[in-house]
Amino acid sequence: MEDWRKNKFAFGIFIGPATFWLVLFFMLPLAVVWVYSFGGRGPQGQTIITFSLANYQRALEWIHLGIIWKSAWIAGIATLLCLLMGFPLAKGIAFAPAKWKNPLLLIVILPFWTNLLIRTYSWIAVLRTRGHLNFALEWLHDKTDMAMTFLGLPELMGTFHPLALLYNQSAVIIGLVYVHLPFMVLPLYASMEKLDRSYLEASLDLGAGHWRTLFNVTVPLVKPGILSGVLLTYILSIGSFLTPDLLGGTESMMIGNLIAQQFGSSRDWAFGSALSFLLMYATFIILWIKTVNAKDGEATGI
Amino acid sequence: MNDNRAIISINNLTKTFGDVVVAVDNVTIDIIEGEFFALLGPSGCGKTTLLRMLAGFENPNEGRILIDGQDMVGIQPNRRPVNMVFQSYAVFPHMTVAENVGYGLKVDGVNMAEARPRITEALSLVQLDGYEDRMPDQLSGGQRQRVALARALIKKPKVLLLDEPLSALDAKLREQMQLELVRLQQSVGITFVIVTHDQDEALSMADRIAVMEDGRVRQLAPPSELYEFPNCRFVADFIGKTNLFKATTRGTEGSNVILEIKGLGEVAIPFKGQAENDISIAIRPEKVRLSGTEPSGDAIKISGKVIQVAYYGDESHILLENPTGVVITANVPNDSREAQGRIVEGDDMWISWSAADTLVLTE
To answer: Of A33, A266, B124, B185, whose CB is crowded by the most CB atoms within 10 A?
Structure first.
């Protein structure tokens, strides 16, 4: 086959449309947003380009730092939960009989077939005061109460008060874990699938138990997958807007919601642009850390 | 140490995968303490499954495994007094050579002060002195294998299991490692059980060999007995090269059986067993003589035209075709520089051998 990379004309035809599309609809708007971030809000809410750093200074005010810190913290908890749940899941799929692997992976990505908005609304139906989860708990409570009464211990359980599960940080974390679990499982699965089983067998053979094998052999060998999964989940979580918007309360506002607010009700596009770019810089730093780490990994043969 | 004490007793062991695949079929073997034992067979014969059952990575469906008198059923791999050298070596890539070799000691809670000299000693045993701080990706395949050996031997197992340990090495290194493994086994005195599909490997290293086919042990004997007295066509054909002829029984004459063979006519061969209808004779290609004229005497002989001369350096393999269509191979040593070219395709020659060297096979 002719190497089309050498033929400049063919090369141009192949990469032209995608380049055109990305430059026109991604790079240019991004440049506009970048310029906006140095502007200010006019009296009618219009954006005035003033070339000042005022927006970035404002972003570092305590009230905004608090929101940024909270976003980082919520995303961190969600990522940790995704890792704790995703690791055994990915290992289970990677070690399942060959004919089960693809169906199991399909189940993991099946939620993507439904719109995110609808899936998030379903969580409202599950978590709200008169939602499925509270109904289930109430039913359990009533049955226990009946059993207690039957055993001659009436009124011990008291009356059931529905739990406040929605519109708080826990609801946001539950939602983020639910949405981003596949992004953790897939990279983990990819690196566990490549893992030579004889490493684990060798560890067992040399006298190590399953836990020691997990932490001394499996985890170090699938470290690239763990790193990819964690970063992907974290980046997606920290910038998420829909989940905290629908499931969170006033005290669980994340940076995504703050940005949306600037472009919406506050009509302060300049400040919103500055916040967006701060988020993007943070993402770049995280990705840079991963690249540096990946290079280290290559050097030591992992 | 008792001379013939079984360190491993395998009794009626059966392993099936799913409902149809019988990997190991009712195998009974005693492996003697201190011997170098080989499980030999073509791929898919169940030898690796058998080894993995000894290590504890597979559970038998039926039968028992006793290691040093202790029943191994339900005992996890990390609790068995055996260690394994894996086909891929499985040297942990994220640990140094010393960390790899010391892994089993660390697991056992041996402190560093005590482990260090033992690691040095183990590395010296496999001739890797001074390699402690290397990473596995800085080692050659042969060196990685030595690390795997040291890592297993440092645990002082009752039995060392080796799964096709030489298959990934090139021919020259393989031959060198064969000798070294034997030396190592003799110096540590640990029972070695090796799985291999390579008959040369098994013959040159093992004290005893179990030849397996379709999950069953076909013959268990020392190497020379396997080669000179195979008990069935499969073993005769699998171990070394052999000329196999189908025969028809014509009767007996004293301690000889009279057989009629296409191309050879009627021959009398010493045979103690029961002469059945399904009978074959076999002759090793290095045990025949090649001559230009008809040999005299009562040797078994066949004439024909040379159809191929395959030159191997140290010897040549001559293929002779009889007018009846029977083809027979003779291995001729190239014992002088002029030997090559003495026999060429199209020559009319005789091949003969003594009745005593002929094998009679009924299975």
So the answer is: B185
